[in-house]
Each structure stands twice: as C-alpha cells, then as structure tokens.
Amino acid sequence: MAPASSRAALPAARRIVVKIGSSSLTRPDGHLDESALRSLVDVLAARVTDPATGGQIVLVTSGAVAAGIGPLGLPARPRDLATMQAAASVGQGQLVARYTEAFAGHGVRVGQVLLTAEDTVRRSRYANAQRSLEKLLALGVVPVVNENDAVTTAELKFGDNDRLAALAAHLVRADALVLLTDVDGLYDGPPSRPGTRRIPHVERLSDVAGVEVTARGSAVGTGGMLTKLQSVRIATGDGIPVVLTHAGDAAAALAGADTGTFFAATGRRTTARRLWIAHAAGTQGRIHLDDGAVRAVRGGRASLLPAGVTKVEGVFDAGDPVELVGPDGVVVARGLVAFGSTDLPALLGRTTHALREELGEGYDREVVHRDDLVLEGTDRTP
Ligand SMILES: Nc1ncnc2c1ncn2[C@@H]1O[C@H](COP(=O)(O)OP(=O)(O)O)[C@@H](O)[C@H]1O
Ligand SMILES: N[C@@H](CCC(=O)OP(=O)(O)O)C(=O)O
After folding, report:
1. Are 301 and 294 in contact (CB under 8 A)?
2. In whole angstroms, what is the distance from residue 112 CA to residue 94 CA?
3. pLDDT tens digits for 20-68?
4. 208 lines ligand 1 (CB under 6 A)
5. Residue 26 annotated as lining a ligand binding site
6. Fewest CB atoms within 10 Å of the CB: 33, 121, 131, 261?
7. Where does ATP bind (predicted)?
8. Domain termination site, one of 218, 246, 275
9. Can you give the residue range of the structural domain that contains 96?
C-alpha cells in the first residue's frame, strides 16, 4: 500500500473519518441544504458499497442548528444560546433523518452517535465510545457523529467539530481524515484576499506556521481555519494523514486526486492514554513548578514531586488532567494529577521523605507520575 504520507494512500484507505462543516450544509437563508447533503451521501455510500475498498466511513457532521431552523419556524440562525440549543435538539433529529433516508437509497444503514469532546478524551468514556463505534463499523453501519449540542453549552458556543473529528479518527484508528468545508483547501492567506493561493501539500505543520488563518470564515461555521489546523495537528501528530478540501470535491479527495490540501502524517500512532492527556478537553487546574522541577520534567524520565511545586490553581480531583506551568508562566506539560486540589497545598515544597514521616504512607508519592505526563506540544511522555 502507498505510504500514508501521500495522497496515493487515499483510494486504498480502509477506514476514513469524513467531517463536513455547517458552511457546506447550509443555504444562504440558514436552512439545511438537503441537496448538498445528498451529494455527500452519494459519494460516501459509493465508497462503503465498493467491494474493492470494503470502505468504512465515520461521518462527523455539523448542521444540527441549521436543520432546526425550518421546523421551529425561526426567521434565521439563532444567536442566543438557549435557542441554539433548542434548534440543535430539533435539528439533530432532522439531520439524522435526512442522512438515514439518503443512505438508505444506497442500501446503507446509519447510526447516530452524539459525543462531547470529553467522550473522546476521558478514559472511562473513551472506551465506551470506541466500543460503540467499532461495533457499528463491524456491522457495516455508517456512524453519523455530531456533538451533543443540546446539553454541551460550551461546545455549542465554541463548538468545534473539527477537533472532534480528529479525536474520532484517533478513536477508530482511521487511515485518513477528510475535512470538508466551503473553501478548496488551506490558502497562503485569507482566501478573500486577492492573490492568495491554495497550498496543495503540507509535509509538516511548521511549514505553514506563518500562514494567516482566521477563527471565523463563513457566517455559519465555527472556528474557521484555526480549528481545522488544530484538528490537523492532532490527526497528523497521531499518524493520520488529512485532506482538507471543498465539500464538492469529496469524491476527488477520496480518490487521491490533487484537490485541496494534503497534510502528511508526521507522528507515530500514539496511545489513547497519551492523546487523552495531551488533548484533554479543558484541564481542570494549573500546578506551578520551580525551575528545578521544570528541568526535571522537560529533561528526562522524572516524575513531578511535591518538593518542586510552588502553587496550585483551580479545583480538581485526583486523576484529573492539569497543566504544569513554569515560573515564567509557560505550560511545560500536561498530566494526570495524583492528588485533589484540597489535599495538594499541604504537601507543597516538602520532600517525599518528610511527607512520609509526617503524614504517613500514601502521601509520599509523585504529584504527577512520569507515565501520566505529556510534554507540551509533543504528545509524548518525557
Ligand atoms: N488561510 C486560510 N485558508 C483557507 N481558508 C481560510 C483561511 N483563513 C480563514 N479561512 C476561512 O475558513 C473558512 C472555513 O471555516 P468554517 O466557516 O468554520 O467552515 P466549516 O463550517 O466547514 O467548519 C473558509 O470559508 C475561509 O474563509
Ligand atoms: N454541532 C454544531 C456545529 C459545530 C461546528 O463545529 O460547526 P462547523 O465549524 O461548521 O463544523 C451543529 O451541528 O450545528
């Protein structure tokens, strides 16, 4: 098989996560664009029913809010959170009904999976989501995934299915991730600016570090190119190549044609646990380290001990993800903390020996064990 770092791997990729954004599923009046939805389904169903690829598709779809506008008789896309939640709740049912109908026309079944970012990163929930998606795929079903917008307020406000798609790709160990949007790839500047051009291939994300990307593109999309690049970072760093292209070019992208932007996989497949720590949705707290502890954590195989901690911020329980911050305020690593925020302050700055003497066994352990640490920006343990 062609290396996963080239487009040539796409035609033979067995398992692909495809994400489509609101901007590609919404008409200018804010309503769901059913013909765009059907065009996408035609392409995906062809892949799933192609005996040559035995293709498996996980579809991450936005558009719940858009699909709720019509049934609720709203004049336009709502702006306030409660109405957005209501629209998403009504619209999600509509959206899945449209997908069910369109895929059924090709003899393909779909199953709705509503996730929050937490479900893809919290270990206890992660295994659950993974099992459910695996079973659906094994049964030949196309999982239709969206965020659980009706209840996840923050997700709806900053809602970001781009990142969710990358985490879903990790969850199912996808061979590729395809991000479909309303622009035909990453441009070397905001595409509305005259003279900007499509970047066809990105070997390493650092090659496009200077490219100007905005957080909001279309009127209905959330996150713009910024969250797409975050998604690309998670996926490629996890060994999954990404194609970012216009929804109308979905067939070409799956065929490995020169459309959109191809992002080569850079990292190796990482464990669920490391990805979970590196990308845990919303760390619960911050632990401040002295210089010696920063060096120890950065430099080698060291755990974080109570003696190197100067301050604790936030409310968290033992086992929660936290950020480890140096004296300069820079985040050094993320990790799973072994003590809750109520217990931790009493241990600060004291040696493990002193803690054992004074507080007894159980208090003389690491604040963050090295197996539970991931250095910032690397997805790897020290
Ligand atoms: N450098 C860039 N290259 C391409 N698109 C960009 C860039 N910077 C910002 N964008 C904008 O990102 C938008 C896509 O994001 P968004 O509207 O959130 O889409 P979606 O609904 O598909 O998630 C494009 O319409 C485009 O205007
Ligand atoms: N989950 C929301 C959309 C969230 C989102 O990330 O939107 P987009 O940036 O268009 O992919 C919905 O279904 O309306």
Report:
1. no
2. 12
3. 999 899 887 778 899 999 999 999 999 999 988 779 999 999 999 889 9
4. no
5. no
6. 131
7. 19, 181-182, 222-228
8. 275
9. 7-275
Q: How far is CA 336 from CA 56, 237, 281, 358, 363, in A?
A: 34, 21, 13, 25, 16
CA separation for the pair 180, 334 (Å, rounded) = 31
**What torsion do the CA atoms of 244, 245, 250, 252 make, to the nearest 10 degrees?**
-100
Whether residue 319 is annotated as binding a ligand: the answer is no
Is residue 84 a known part of a binding site?
no
Paired with 323 in beta bridges are 286, 334
Ligand 1 atom nearest residue 185's Cα: 4
Task: Kindly state the DSSP code that residue 61 receives in the 8-state scheme.
Answer: E
Rg value, the chain, Cα: 22
Query: CB–CB of 181/24 below 8 Å?
Result: yes
Query: With the C-alpha atoms ordered 322, 325, 330, 336, is the resulting torsion angle positive or negative?
Result: negative
ipTM of the complex: 0.95
CATH number at residue 355: 2.30.130.10
Our mutation pick for probing the ligand 2 site, out of 79, 157, 161, counting the most ligand atoms within 8 A of Cβ, is 161
The distance between the two most distant Cα atoms of the chain, rounded to a whole number of Å, is: 71
User: Is residue 155 within 6 Å of ligand 2 at its C-beta?
Assistant: no
DSSP string, 241-269: -EEEEEGGGHHHHHTT-S-SEEE---S--
Residue 2 lies inside a defined structural domain of this protein:
no
Is 19 assigned to a binding site?
A: yes
CA angle 175, 247, 279 (to 5 degrees): 45
> pLDDT tens across 250-264, in order?
999 999 999 999 999
Mean pLDDT calculated for residue range 315-335: 91
Q: Is residue 381 part of a domain?
A: no
The answer to whether residues 142 and 110 touch, using CB atoms and an 8 Å cutoff, is yes
Is the Cα dihedral 188, 194, 195, 201 positive or negative? positive
62 C-alpha to ligand 2 centroid (Å): 4
| 344 lies in the same domain as 261 | no
Out of 275, 310, 330, a domain closes at: 275
The gap from C-alpha 10 to its chain's centroid, in whole angstroms, comes to 20
Ligand nearest to the CA of 24: 1
Domain count, the chain: 2
